[in-house]
Design goal:
Two copies of one chain form a homodimer. Chain A is 39% helix and 17% strand. By secondary structure, chain A is α/β, with parallel strands linked by helices.
Chain lengths: 363, 363
């Protein structure tokens, strides 16, 4: 890799996966953007994408995959299709809060627990009411680099087997390895770990979650958006979408998923952990920076957040990185000036991480 | 143009505008898919796109432009944001019917009038109740090639000045020339006349339509989707969108709009009319085919529908065209086997239309 090349370690929209350009040119050559979304060609693309995604992420056969326009839309469709009255939201940062806020906006009786990120979870008293129909969890919170070990999520499911569990894996997929038997709704968008242009959301729905939508519909309490689960399934059953979808994005998602399968998901996961370790090791010993998340098991492997010590401003650091053509994200909202957010996605190389660390070392 | 080139006259997703590939490569070179949707760079792209679209389509300064994921979503947002109880829908085909059906699904008291396409409108008794808050009109009905002269739409507005008028121009923009003072909500998607990959919907909202959303919100009757008008405006005011949008699509829309401005919208409109005339002239004199829409003022200039005489099947015709590498659309739903649908968009050349006519002549 040339020294003059820009290094993008922003948390998203991320840099593109290296093969994206090739796939786009291939798509144009084959007139993919011009195929009808009711044609055989589209249906086999849809089908292939579902098969490949299920293979890559180990999604059970009986789970539905719906294609939406964004992760934000996925949150809204989860709220509309699986909550009659009461929801419960585990919040560690801004994206968890957004899910909670959306449920309130849609007139659900939404309760939330704000996680103390500096305390082990078993020292925190999380009371989830009996009436809660769903528990939403941001598995990886992009805003502050907090993440849940899936094991904790399975424990929650074991404690509340009747409640639906909805999981935001926007910035941890495809790294995060999930046991879908313990989760009912999972969603992500493609502009983070898949390294694709933004404009496509993926929502994975368990049979139990789908049944809830059926139940609400029977009671005449389902909000009949054009993207309600019944309508989405009606079309998905014939490998189609209700509206003209982002066909090019679907093509690219399939292409990248195939690339990931070729590389091997185990290799991707191991390398992600190695690269994360390099960054955290550096941060633990640094004089100016420290990991924002102190408890190791809470530290995200894919979106790593450093904070400046003593509340120093981050502007000089970002400036110096930019001079070396290294781009990372500043903090989210309130933390804008004191956090640095570093993405560690499958296409970020060891070389790039080393360049970042070397550059931070001499600041 | 080479003789071996395929000719795509399908009604949508259409073939791509000839410059799209160039624009995509330019976007990739400039890392457009990786820019943050909260960055200065994105905001100026958003702003520029709005300015250029307003220039091209002659949209008044005070109208809002919202970017959504599809025209279907635009219909839903119109229903949610401007109808408290009662809506009225003028239906000539499947897409008008979809608008009506969606309003019913969202629990609105929706009434509809089915237009008799074989009778002048002033011979039809369209009774719009006083209580109707909105009148939805499919200005160009892609399913059957029926279109409304805008003058008729203005007459309707003059008769019902207090009602909102919502217009579907999915398959007639940018050809159709509208006086926005007489219309409150206009929407289209980019995969037809703009010749872009699908995945972006554009919704244009008058101050009066926006006020209706404010009024519903005050009464606590606004459905607070993440894409409600207030939220969309809050972000549009800072040249942003609530969610991570399809940035690449926005970039391409801006690029093509600039291309259209360079060509000149008057030229595009004149050529569209000339090409339409060529096709209709041919159909009027043909032995096997005839225009499905008989009344001249109802005949669409951009999606032209022919039907076989005596209900003959269209399969042999489509087959013969395919052998010459000419692709047009079959009929919509019930008309699948007896209609031929021909797109006449800005990027369809006289040469392509001539090839089609020559080929149909000898069938």
């Amino acid at each position: 890799m040339g020294k003059n090349k820009k290094i993008f370690l922003t948390v998203g929209p991320s840099k593109l996966f290296p093969t994206v350009k090739k796939h786009i040119l291939e798509a144009l050559k084959n007139n993919i953007p011009s195929i009808s979304h009711r044609s055989e060609k589209f249906m086999s693309l849809f089908e292939e994408t579902v098969v490949n995604l299920k293979k890559l992420l180990n999604i059970p056969k009986e789970y539905q995959i719906f294609f939406l326009s964004s992760a934000t839309e996925a949150m809204e469709k989860i709220i509309e299709n699986t909550i009659e009255k009461n929801s419960f939201h585990l919040i560690s940062g801004e994206f968890g809060f957004r899910f909670f806020q959306m449920a309130k906006n849609l007139k659900k009786n939404a309760l939330a627990y704000q996680i103390d990120i500096n305390k082990p979870l078993n020292n925190q008293k999380i009371i989830i009411p009996k009436s809660s129909e769903i528990i939403t969890i941001t598995q990886n919170e992009t805003s502050i680099g907090f993440s849940f070990d899936p094991k904790i999520i399975y424990q929650i499911k074991n404690l509340y087997p009747k409640k639906l569990i909805a999981l935001d894996i926007v910035s941890s997929t495809p790294y995060i390895d999930l046991n879908f038997d313990k989760i009912d709704l999972v969603f992500f968008s493609v502009q983070k770990g898949f390294g694709l242009p933004a404009g496509l959301g993926v929502l994975i729905v368990s049979p139990k979650a789908f049944e809830k939508a059926l139940f609400l519909n029977k009671k005449n309490k389902l909000y009949l958006s054009y993207h309600n689960f019944l309508e989405l399934k009606k079309y998905a059953d014939k490998s189609q979408t209700p509206e003209t979808p982002n066909v090019l994005a679907l093509y690219l998602l399939n292409a990248i998923t195939k690339d990931f399968l070729k590389i091997g998901i185990e290799k991707i996961r191991k390398e992600t952990e190695k690269k994360a370790k390099m960054i955290y090791n550096f941060l633990e010993k640094n004089k100016i920076l420290e990991p924002y998340i102190k408890i190791h098991s809470f530290q995200s492997k894919t979106t790593i957040v450093a904070q400046t010590k003593n509340g120093k401003k981050n502007d000089l650091i970002l400036e110096k990185l930019k001079k070396q053509k290294i781009y990372i994200s500043s903090g989210y909202k309130d933390f804008k000036d004191i956090h640095l957010r570093i993405a560690n996605f499958p296409f970020h190389t060891f070389w790039e991480i080393k360049q970042l660390i070397n550059c931070l070392k001499v600041i």
